[in-house]
Input
Amino acid sequence: MSYQTPKGTKDLIGEEGEKFQKAIDVVRSVFEKYGFEPWFTPAFETFELLSAKGGLGEAVKEEIYYFKDKAGRELGLRFDQTMPLARIAVSKPEIPKPIRRYAIAPVWRYDNPQAMRWREFWQADVDIIGSSSTLADAECVAAAVEALEKLGFQDFLLRVNNRKTLDDIFAFIPEGKRKQAFRAIDKLDKIGSRGVKAELDKLGLDSEKILSLVSLSGEEAFEAVKGRRGEAEISSFFDYAKEYGFFNKLKLDLSLVRGLEYYTGLVFEIEAGKGVSFGGGGRYDDLIKTLGGQDLPATGISLGLSRIFEELKSREPATPRSKVFVAYVDEGLVKEAIRVVKRLREAGLRAEISVSGKKLSSQLEYADKLDMPFVVLVGEEELKEGKYKLKSMRERKEEVLSLGEIIERVKADA
Amino acid sequence: MSYQTPKGTKDLIGEEGEKFQKAIDVVRSVFEKYGFEPWFTPAFETFELLSAKGGLGEAVKEEIYYFKDKAGRELGLRFDQTMPLARIAVSKPEIPKPIRRYAIAPVWRYDNPQAMRWREFWQADVDIIGSSSTLADAECVAAAVEALEKLGFQDFLLRVNNRKTLDDIFAFIPEGKRKQAFRAIDKLDKIGSRGVKAELDKLGLDSEKILSLVSLSGEEAFEAVKGRRGEAEISSFFDYAKEYGFFNKLKLDLSLVRGLEYYTGLVFEIEAGKGVSFGGGGRYDDLIKTLGGQDLPATGISLGLSRIFEELKSREPATPRSKVFVAYVDEGLVKEAIRVVKRLREAGLRAEISVSGKKLSSQLEYADKLDMPFVVLVGEEELKEGKYKLKSMRERKEEVLSLGEIIERVKADA
Output
């Protein structure tokens, strides 16, 4: 018999598990510093809710894990963390606004697995519900940017656009064809401007004009949005970014046309290299109302944590599972060894006691294999003086010390 | 339209979300101190794997969320964290042993929802794979006990039994009836000894003898296990417990007969009051071999975190979402307010800036409603001297201070 993870999913174990947990902790600590609070929602939601996003309806079944429970209730694994949040905003109008919540958890999509694309993957989201201020957008983006920086990333770009501005600038495209035109533009990275041109031509649109507009950058792009709807949001967002310190990462980018059935104002995408997205977001002022709730403006950004982690893990140095390993010469010393490991843990050290029941040399081999920097050796001889052998595995050095001295020595090791 | 969480599931949001995250952190920090490492596995597994536990086979379908993906693959949401761990132990024999892993995550069971029983609930597990030593059992239990203590629980009992001892003592029950007899004994809490007696009588067994054995406690229970198989494990476990410091919580309890198709040696149950279980575990030396893996001894314990949290949350004091709320007199001061909140966060404080776009009095009301202890007020007048108003919301006190002084003042507040 052999068992595997289901298609499109994977384990994160051993050293990878440690590193992933660390990455979660880094992101969390930033989100919390910004006053976002952790909300936990179930892994699955009613199909009624899931199918309400962007008016997808039944079609969403193709993209999600859909199932019925034994009473015939239609359910599905959540495909994002925004719909559960919107559900709560709709059903609990009494929660004080603005809401600031974060969620770091897996989501599931029935996608075609490929490099950096899984059927189960983690997202780290921050959202603010109940504020129409561009400051709310800036707060979410600032938190996401700082999280990436604290993870060690510097070279990423924040593409910025505005749904309203886009609709205004491209008002010359007949409304019936705008969606298809944007879908073509969205493929710029994949099929290049020549490919996009062909698709726009096929739609009978002025492909030259459209392509020249979406390829504007820097000052030219700002010129193009001047006097357009949403301009004030764009300029105050860029202004705020100066204060937060992420202005130098911004790019006003009229070719950013993703998720437009859903976003209503500013939209963002974090690009970490050509075609590599670390996440994105934007303002979705209509969602909660559409679901039958109050008219509540909302904005947020989602980091693709699984993908980010793939980029990260090769850089992050490995950390040993435990700082100290407590070994003992023979079974008669087990209780003494328990006393030692207990004291080490009380001192806040990550410490492990040998449970292999093997002889000393095997215990040491194991500590070495798991890269533990220190071994405390409990032996009859040293015990007579109330002392233990401390082996520094890196320096291959041994000293006979009291437990107090050992704790001091290990703690001093960075 | 109204949306709800699916039957048997619930949200943990706002203050509850904060408290739950804190509880997770407490448990995690203990587990890590013991050298357990975090492993992440997918929410769903192949049905082939899930159906292999305890020889349940097809019958497990009734108890889990079972579904097929679009390619017809049979899947199910995990119902525990042990089967995913066992899968990895089977399929990755190269991982150095002993493995020490922890997992704090939701699991799903298609159970009948009732008080303290949900279809989605969180478990916090520690397991050691690859050690047959009773010390491994003691390490897992010690970690679980310390986690509960760090959460603030003192009055719980650790019921201990041993599958081998049980089989030896009750060898007088014909093997074909033993399972049913144990199932009856397992209902002692629910139906009382009279009810159990009736069931045992119906099986044609010596109900008096059985009931008198399972009701033994203290010295008498130890007398009963003397000379029986597994006695050495029991006594060394109790011995080790003295060193770890949880001896006073132990109760040798021959009526603990749960999960016997699965456990092979010591078994544990944490009882936090009559009929209230905070979790349990034990040794499962056969599981990995049964799944087709190496002959790897294994032991572990699982805390029912959702249930524990229900007991906990009323005791835990509420903490404000943010320590400091930055308000401003008018929109012209937003950028100055961003500078302030940025500095507060850089100082490590959990700080939030007003994004409501409302006038000052509403901003203050909001900070009050969310119970934030401090408000920094950015106003034209104080700014002239490079200062800000610090409002202490609890003491209803105002001071005009520099940002450095504000940080000091807020940090000094416990």
Notes: The longest strand of chain B covers residues 99-108.
